[in-house]
Amino acid sequence: MSKILIAEDEVLMLKALEFKLKKDGYQVDVASDGRQAMEKVKSNTYDLILTDIMMPFVGGMEILSYIKNDPIKKSTPVLLISAVGLENVVLEGFHLGADDFIYKPFNLNELSVRIKRYIKQNVF
Amino acid sequence: MREFVTTFETLFNNAIFYYALFVMGSYVILTLLSAIEMNGYMKKNSYVNYREILVSPLAPSVSILAPAYNEEATIIENIRSLLSLHYGNYEVIIINDGSKDNTFQRMFDYYQLEKVDFAVDYQIKCNEIRGVYKSKLPSFSKLTVVDKVNGGKSDALNAGINVSAKDLILCIDVDCIVQEDAILKLAKPYLEEKYQVIATGGVVRIANSCVVEDGKLVEVNMPKNLWPRFQVLEYIRAFLMGRMAWSRLNGLLIISGAMGLFDKNTVIKVGGYDHTTVGEDMELVVRMRRYMYEQDRRFKVVYIPDPLCWTEAPTDLQILGRQRNRWTRGTIETLWMHKDLFFNPRYGVLGMLSYPYWFFFEWLAPIIEFLGISVFIMLALMGNINWEFSAILIGMVYFFSIALSTVAVLFEEMSYQQYTKGGDLVKLLLAAFLEPLFYHPLTVYWAIRGNIDKFTGKNNWGAMTRKGFKGNNASATTEQTIT
Amino acid sequence: MNFFETIINYIKETYTDRLVYFPSNIRVSLLIILFCAIAVLELYIYIAFRRLHQASQNRELKNWKEHIDNMLANLIIFDESEETDDIVAHFYPKMKKLPLRNSVVNKVLISEMLTYHRNFTGQIQEVLSILYRKLGLDKKSKRKINNKNWEIKIEGIREANEMRITEMADEIIKYTDDENALLRMEAQAAYIKLSEKDPFHFLDRAQERILDWHQVVLFEIITKNKQLTIPPFSKWLRSPNDTVVMLCLKLVDHFMQFDAADEVERLLKHHNPRIVKKSVEIIGKLELSDAEKNMFEVYFDQPEDIKLEILNSIGKISSGNYNDFLASRIYSPDIKVKREAFYAIKRDPNNGEDKLREIYKQTTLENQAIINHVLDNRIKS
User: Is A105–C121 a contact, with Cβ atoms under 8 angstroms apart?
Assistant: First the structure.
């Protein structure tokens, strides 16, 4: 079973995402702030990481750059969730190696399809 | 002779009584004003969503200016946390003020700096800028490092202003802990006031015993040590009550050196920070206000009561004393430089209210208190004192100060409620009871020492002070001007 | 024990029998002491009770939140293959059972429904809207909008706004020019989203200022909302309300409305320098070369910041008509003017950078430094 980490500081969103991905059949780990997320990222391996950009303590960008600079974890797909549509943020995200951007508001079913695709890609 | 002493004693008692009544009355008025302002702010602010400024291309651009002098131990972390603030359009300018340690080399290596061909426009006089550096890495594109010849904090900030390419400048102490939404909150007034805003200031809170990780505040705790705990009380009173009231009157004179957001053009027009005073943060605001009055322009200095900046307060009495000594000298210097404001109606609230208040309460009050105590001791030695009356008078002041501190604690409780643990309130209460007995006399003593140092010419009105602050006394830089 | 008794007795006597015999100042002092002591005591009792009350409220809130969180999260992940009506039919009875009269429950439910409505698109939004109405929450929102308290009005407006209760637009328009700035802004923001016929009608009647902050908010809403029909904003560029003109200029800029060119050019003579500056910026950004001449003509009467903006715009248009002018500006006494002129020259599509290098060979040391600065692409301004 594929393992996914969701990092999101808005409790409600975290819950909805958790429920949704569990229903899709993934093993789900959650972090409600950036620090927790960082600790989990450091001590576990995931098949995919879904993280909000703006979180208390440690931002999604930092988590992203940690993963993409780690020789082993580098291949883990990272999807960034953001309400920020600023071009430079998106650019910075892709620069650091983000695999995809999800803008709030988004369609949950669409997200679930995208996640499926990234996880499949990684298996092969 | 005996008769004379008795009459003198009655007079003395009366003088103390009326003076105390006057001071207490002023405090009551200030408290009421701050309650009104605080209530308005909290109500208004609960309907604000800061996300819009964060993402908007219309938000004002901000340069963070942080002077660094011998900060090698922490500079890398400090910069990292400044680069991760929540704001769209901002840059971070670190000014290496001729550090004698490896501050510059550390930054150079870690952030992979390279010198750029920056043609500095010296709009404000400052010591020579040796070079302007940018990072080769795209993820640090917000960072600029300025390397200059040592000239003190004011001079470093002036250099930063000359390099800044943005509309607003956020002047901070590099080692304080900045909340992530600080710029958002400080910048908002620039977008909503009818009149031009020339400066906004934030609250400084005390970080002693708090848990800090990765340059960010994780858990707020009441300081374990008694001296910083008194300062917590002192800061709550000053920031939540005093400044809020002055903000209501649009007469705020001080924006703390630890964190203030200024309109860059106005700062340039008034000539930037004055490096001849140790109270440069207060002096700048006074000069900016004065300039606006002279230009006949309507303006505002806004104060944001949210806890945006946390700093380590001195626990060592000697360092604390030196800090207060410097504040006193800074106040005297600023008052002296702008002495023509005193009850000058041309300068509105500044001349008729703020300046006199600072003159009587911040400068004169400790002196009067000291004189009062001296006379009291003299009378006591002459055996000519009505102990009961004196005790009652002192009791009045004591109880009033406790009541005032309690109201301040209530303000904190009803607004930000930073100290949530059960015992914290009791600790604050205890501090309120002990403060007038142990801490307050010390602050009076330090203020007197400041006055003596100032007037015995230990440092003249001029350049000497700067040397005392930065040049000769490196350890002074570990403290920071807060008030 | 005796010691305390003595003290208590002393205090008692001081405040009863002896009080009248004290001189007046001592008597007043005694009264102030009494007042302060009582005040301190009461404040602490008040704070303690406040904390207790808060704690019990938080407990209640937490319980309900947990319950409602789970209910809504289950609703959110309902399968897309299901019919909207079926999902509603499944969840409505459960939600109906909640004690909606309880203000805590009401508040939590509404805020969570709004949060999900805001963050997700697709069928979920529709389901939430239907449930909102079925539970009668829309009527409550309407009542809030007509409450006399401005804070409650704002709450109601926000609910109507987020839940797209379009029929509320007519209720809201009356607040779009309200004296209270916060209420005014919320109403304007909601009106844009809710009015189906004429979402910008409020601009016609706006007499109160639209503060910069509100412009930020409105700008966000207007530019991010894909369903909105964007009108030609030049329509309001003659508004007597400067803030309306300013907002519309920003929108003309964003949507690149070239048909506003004449109106923008006319604004170069506007009395408000901020409007002049913005107009200059737009002329540069949209490369309105017809306006270049006019812009050049007003140059010398402008304050420094607008001068810089004009140089910048001339650089962006880079028609070549003002090359001599730009070349003369590099000898201006003002370094900022020089720098901007160099930047403008650099933009020249016919090898602007080479031109700068050419000038470099025969100019002052100061200008050479500035040219280096301008040519250094690592410095962004």
Answer: yes
